[in-house]
Design goal:
This protein has 388 residues and is mostly beta strands. It is built from no helices and 26 strands.
Length: 388
Amino acid sequence: MNRRTILAASGGALSATVAGCAGVLETDDGDDDLAVEEVADGFEHPWSLSVVPDDGRLLVTEREGALSVLEPDDGDVEDVDGAPDVYAEGQGGLLDAAFHPDFPDEPWLYLTYATANDDGESTTALGRGELDLEPGSLEGFEELYAVEPFLDATDHYGSRVVFGEDGAVYVTVGDRGSKEFGPDHYSQDTSTAIGSTLRLEPDGSIPDDNPFLDDEDVLDELYSYGHRNAQGMSVHPETDELWQSEHGEEDGDMLRIVEEGANHGWPVVHYGCEYGTDDPVGDEFDDRDDVVDPVYYWECNSGGFPPAGMTFYDGDAFEEWEGDLFVGNLAGEYLGRFTVDGTDVEEVDPLLEGQGWRIRDVVTHPETGALYVAVDDADAPIVRLTPE
């Protein structure tokens, strides 16, 4: 049963004169019109979109805990039973999703989510279950990893999960909002996974080639550390590099190429300031040779770019976008587009401005080349972008 309201069916954009309805925008480069369609609405803070392999439908997670499958051709939405119980407080809840690289032969669906203990403290967790699309159930869900320690906080869980080209599972973990700036911050404490990127085997075990296995002062599961709150992660389709979008403090937002075994700086170096001030957090990157610089950043007083989900465009619908990086902007309420040439990144042609949409996630449909966008709101649509 469809528990959503279908707003637009396939077959072209609908004419509209009000924001939030299907309509037509024009790209800034002036080459092609962009058709913007709301495929379905009624989602409660959707957090992630994933295209079901060999199927074409979209898997949608909602922060409050719902999991569903959306048919993009007609807007039909079917609930999926068996998702884990989540801690849906503050920024916590049901977060990201990723399919096993060999899905459906290996029918595992991986989820990240916030979970709580009996004392009401919470953390970021990774789990998996076997997805059966007919009748729509997630069977035998099990927790694979939970970050220690649990904390009395509801901010900065991360959390994105992707499979690398090496077959490993990568998970971003936020710093949980700690304001203990300095070298004793959680993100600089390698005895915890808070403020890190994890690298795990598909069964949750530790790969035997992780970078810190021979360092007794660092958790074996860490791939990188010194992160604040990465809410976007994508594998570059040509270089296989792991890219992340990460929230700064007062501005200081950044795009990163994650380096194996490296300290990425937070909060001992940063481009942002403490909230409500002009006071810098930490040193400048140029003053340290033991941390990894971002490839793109927004300085304090720049207005920032509070980033969310991201994808590299590798579809056929928009030839001029091939290889570009798309990143959701939350407070700025638009979809950012960035050209990428190695480590040379430039922001161009923002999309969906003026719609009043906090963009939580974006994904390229491999069959049609359309971009699908999740809007972060209490009664939110899933939006499709195609050439007009």
